[in-house]
Amino acid sequence: MKAADTSIIINDLRLYAYHGVLPQERRVGGWFVVSLRVHYNITRAMETDEVADTLNYADLYGVVKAEMAVPSQLLEHVAGRIAKAVFGRFPEVLALDLSVTKENPPMGANCSGAGVELHLINNKTDD
Q: Is pTM, for the whole model, over 0.85?
């Protein structure tokens, strides 16, 4: 058996944070939803059943939580910081699919959220 692509995922992580262009958004805060697909080789863990042979998703959550705690105007900036932190903390990550969504954005529309999605490749793994 050969794995073509393997990932660690965290879906719909809901965090309260202080991001937004308007000063009130950064003062009052709001709910955000973050989802990640971290492309990472988990084949060794498939055989060994050892946490040391995989990327611990609790550690991944800690990286996201820390970056979400830093107020920013733009979700693009927040997503970029999360991506840099993931690649920095876990250099063996091959790629990252990431979405950051603001629930109830102040734009006068009835929607479940607005946000950004990224697909990034860790070019440090090309060496």
A: yes
